[in-house]
Design a protein that fits this description.
five-stranded mixed sheet, alpha/beta, 124 residues
C-alpha cells in the first residue's frame, strides 16, 4: 500500500510506501499525480518517504515503476528520497530514470529539510 498526497501550494507529491510496491500502488500514484501534472504542466518535486525502502513485489513491479518514471521524468524537477535505507543505491537508481530531475537523499529524520529542498527553485 502507498499513500500519495500532492501539495498544490508547492507542486510537490509525497509518496509513502507501507510495504512492497505492487501494481495497485502504481495505479494509485498515476491516478493522483497524472491529473495534477496534466492540469499544472509539471510537478516541482516528489518526496519518497519510507524509513526502510520496502522494495518491489516482483521484477514486473520494478519494471512498472521505471516505466512510470520514464513517462513523467521530464515533468518532475526534483526527487527527494527520505529513508534510512541504502540511500546511495536508491539515489543512483532513481537518478538513472529521472534524468531531467535533480535527485537527492535525506535521512528519515530530515523530512523537513527534504521538503524545503524540493520546494527551492531548481538549479537546472
Amino acid at each position: 500500500m502507498i499513500t500519495v498526497e500532492v501539495d498544490p501550494s508547492t507542486n510537490v507529491a509525497i509518496l509513502k510506501p507501507q510495504g512492497m510496491l505492487n501494481e495497485s500502488d502504481f495505479e494509485t500514484i498515476k491516478g493522483i499525480v497524472d491529473p495534477f501534472i496534466d492540469e499544472k504542466g509539471r510537478l516541482d518535486g516528489v518526496i519518497l518517504q519510507a524509513r526502510r525502502f520496502p522494495g518491489w513485489e516482483s521484477f514486473q513491479r520494478l519494471s512498472d515503476h521505471l516505466r512510470f518514471s520514464q513517462d513523467q521524468q521530464e515533468k518532475v524537477t526534483r526527487v527527494a528520497v527520505v529513508s534510512d535505507s541504502a540511500l546511495p543505491r536508491v539515489k543512483q537508481v532513481l537518478g538513472e530514470h529521472f534524468t531531467h530531475a535533480e535527485v537527492e537523499t535525506f535521512a528519515f529524520q530530515d523530512y523537513e529539510k527534504a521538503r524545503r529542498w524540493v520546494s527551492e527553485p531548481s538549479r537546472h
